[in-house]
Design a protein that fits this description.
Oligomer: single chain
Order of helices and strands: HHHHH
Amino acid sequence: MSFFDLINPFSYVTPFHADGDATEESVVVAADAVEAEAIVIEQIEESNADEEETETEEEEEEEEEEEEAEDKAPLIKEGCGETLACKSLKHHYDECAARVENGSSESCAEEFLHFMECVDHCAASKIFAQLK
């Protein structure tokens, strides 16, 4: 009898003779098949339980790792905004923003985009150097 015979759901059906009686041998085989099937089911349930435990442990570890990670990009960008290369562009943006607050109808989008381009250019290499 092979392993697949043990887990086959139809393997415990007892064959009948032409006169309608089950043979003793078929009853024993059917009992063994039922016991073997029960054992296989228990093993599968145990392995599923073990897998669930390891999955929950892995999820907890991932959550801990995620909590520990800190995004340093905002700090790096803030530092780059204060560099000599970007400081003049920030000054132009601040002047434009002051004019808009005083009632000017102009848009400071161009100044802002130039300033952010400078910050991004400065910060890109520093941010990627921080990646693991």
